[in-house]
Amino acid sequence: MLAETTTNATGKKEIFSNKEIHRVLRNVAASYLILNENKFKVIAYQKAADTVEHLTRELHDIWQEGSLKDVPGIGPSIGSHIDEYFRTGRSSHFEKVFKGIPPSVFALMKVPTIGPKTAFKLAQELHISYPKKAVEKLEEAAKKGRIRSIPTFGEKSEGEIIQAIEAYKKGGMQMERMVLPYAHERAVHLMDYLKKNPLIKRIDALGSMRRMVSTIGDIDIAAVITDETKSSEVIHYFTQYEGTTRIDNAGEAKASIIVPPHIRVDLRIQSESTYGTMLQYFTGSKAHNIKLRDYANKIGFSISEYGVKPTRKFKNSNYKKYSFNRNKEMFEFSNEETLYEFLGLPFIPPEIREGTNEIDLAKKNGLPLLVELKDIRGDFHIHSSYDISTSHDVGKNTYKEIFQNADTLGYEYVGFADHNPKTSGSTSEDITAIMKKRKADIEKQLSSLKQTELHYFIGLEVDILTSGELALPAGALEYVDYLIVSVHSVFSMDVEQMTKRILKALSFPKVKILGHPTGRLLTKRNGYKFDWNQICKEAVERNIGIEINAWPERLDASDSMVRSGIEKGVQFFINTDAHANEQMGNMLYGVEVARRGWASKSDIINTLSYKKVKEWLECC
DNA sequence: GCCGTTTTCGGCCCGACTGTTTTCAGTCG
Description:
Layout: H1 18-34, H2 39-54, H3 59-64, H4 76-88, H5 92-99, H6 104-108, H7 116-125, H8 134-143, H9 155-173, E1 178-179, H10 180-195, E2 200-206, H11 207-210, E3 215-216, E4 218-225, H12 231-239, E5 246-250, E6 254-259, E7 263-270, H13 275-283, H14 286-298, E8 301-304, E9 307-310, E10 323-325, E11 330-332, H15 336-342, H16 358-363, E12 378-382, H17 399-408, E13 413-419, H18 428-447, E14 455-463, E15 482-486, H19 495-505, E16 511-514, H20 532-542, E17 545-549, H21 559-567, E18 572-575, H22 587-596, H23 610-618
Parallel strand pairs: 4-7, 12-13, 13-14, 14-15, 15-16, 16-17, 17-18
Antiparallel strand pairs: 1-3, 2-4, 5-6, 6-7, 8-9, 10-11
The protein binds one DNA strand through helix 2, helix 4, helix 7, helix 9 and strand 6.
C-alpha cells in the first residue's frame, strides 16, 4: 500500500498526494462494502474520497495547518486515520481493513462493470490474489468458460466481462480525454444526426461539456421528444448512429453507445414539462447533484430528474406559483432557473457546479458574478507573421490584418506578442536593432489605417532561460510596452529549481504577464512542476498578471489554479496565443476557464478600458 | 462514519439498466 516515493508539484511525497489519499479512501469504502459493513459507513468513506479527489489544495498542507476537521466529510474517525498516515506513512486501521481483501480486488475493480462485490467474488472463486496480473488472469478464466459456473454469473455476464476487459485494455492505452472543442465538434455531429429524427423536438449537450470542463471524458445528450410513447423508437435510432462500435445499454428512457475512438455517448429522453430537472440532473456534476439533493432533503424536498417531491407537509401558499403534478405528487419544472428559485437559490452557473462550496454560498447569495466573453476588451498575446528571426513558430497574419480582425471582434486594444528573436548567432546590438526596426514597422503599417477606436500595444513573448534570465537584451526593452515571459524549454527541472527560474524571470523590468504558466499540453504533456503559491505571491507583489492561455490544448492557468490565485489576490489575463486570425476566436475557451475558476470581471485585467489598462501596464 | 434550515440523534441523492433471478443486487451516472 505504500506508493513510490517520488515528489509531486508541491514537493510533497507522492504517498501523501491527494491522488493517493483518494485511492486509499476509495479502497477502504470498497472493502467495507465487501465486508457488509454498515452501508452509511461505506458512503462516509466514499464521500471523504470524493472530497479529497476534488480538493483544490493538498490535503497534506491542510493537515499541517491543523485544519483537517474543516474538510467536509472528514470527521474525527477518518481524520485520525489520515493523521496517523501523514505522521507515519501508514495507517494501522486501514491496513486492518485491507487484511481480509485480496489486493487483486482493487485491480479488478478498474475494469468497467466490475464493482467491489463482483471483484471480490471473482478473486475468491478463481483464486486470483495478486494485483499485477489479475485482469489478465480474469480474462483467461473468462475465455476458458470458467466464470459461467460461478453462482449468480452466467454465459451472458461471462461475455460481458470479456468485452469489458477489452474496453479496459483499449481505454488503458489511451486514457486521454478529449479537448473541449474536439468533443464539442463530435457532439454537434451527433446532435445533427439526432435532429434528423422527426420525433425529436429539442436537444442539448450537457454534462461536463455544458460545464465547459477543459477536457471531456464522455458526451452527454438530453432530448425532448414530441410523442412520449415512442421513446424506444428514438433510442433505437440513436443506437444506429454511424460508426457505433458498441451499444452499452439501451432502455426506454436512456441509452449509451460507444463511438470511435472509444467515446461514450449517453442519451436521456424526457418530456418537455419536466425538462428543467433533467437539465439540472444531467449537467451535474455528480458532486453538485448530491449536495443539491442533500440540501433539498433538509428543507423537505426530494429532487430527481423528473421533479421535486415534498417529503413532509409544506405550506401550499409558499409554492402556489409552481406547477404541481397531482398524479405524481411532485412539482415539475420545465426550466432550471425556476427549479433553483424554488429551492430558494439563485441560478448557479453550470461552470461552477462542481460540489465545492457553491451551494453554501448560493444560500447566502454570495456567488460571484462571473466574467463573460463580452467583458473582454482586448487580447495581449498574438503572434504575427513579421520576421524577427525567432526560433519559434511565427504567425500567419500581418500586424495590419491582426489589427483589423481585432477591430471586427469589437476590441478596444490589441497586443502584438511575437516570440523574441533568437539569441544564438546574434549580438545584443543586432537584437536591439531588430526590435527597433520592428517597432518602426508596426507604427508604419498601422498609421495608414483609418481612424478607429482600437489601440495597440507592442509586446513580446520572451523565453525564460534555464537560469531565469530572459532571452532579450536590456537595450531592446525600449521598443516594447510589455513583456510576456514563458518557459518553452527544459521542462524537467525539479520544483525548487523551476520555481527559482520563474521567480527570477518575473524580476525584470516590463515583465507584465507570466505566459501559459504550466507549459502543459492537454492530453499530450503534463506541465512542469513549480511552487504555485510562491509564484502567486511574487506576481501580486510585482503587479504581474498571470495568463489564462485560451489555446484549447493549453488552457493554463487551470480552473483550480485560477480559483486559488484569486484567493491570493492574483490578477489574470485571458489571452489567445493566436498564431492566425481565426484563432483569436478561441478567447471563449479562456473565459470559460476563468469562469470555472470563479473569476469575475475585476479579476481579469483585459476587461479594463484602454485608459485603465494602459495605466496598469505603465504602473510600477 | 458524518453531520446539523428539524436534529447532538437519526437520518444519509436518486433512478435506470442488466443479469440472474422469481424479487433483487450490483453497477453506473
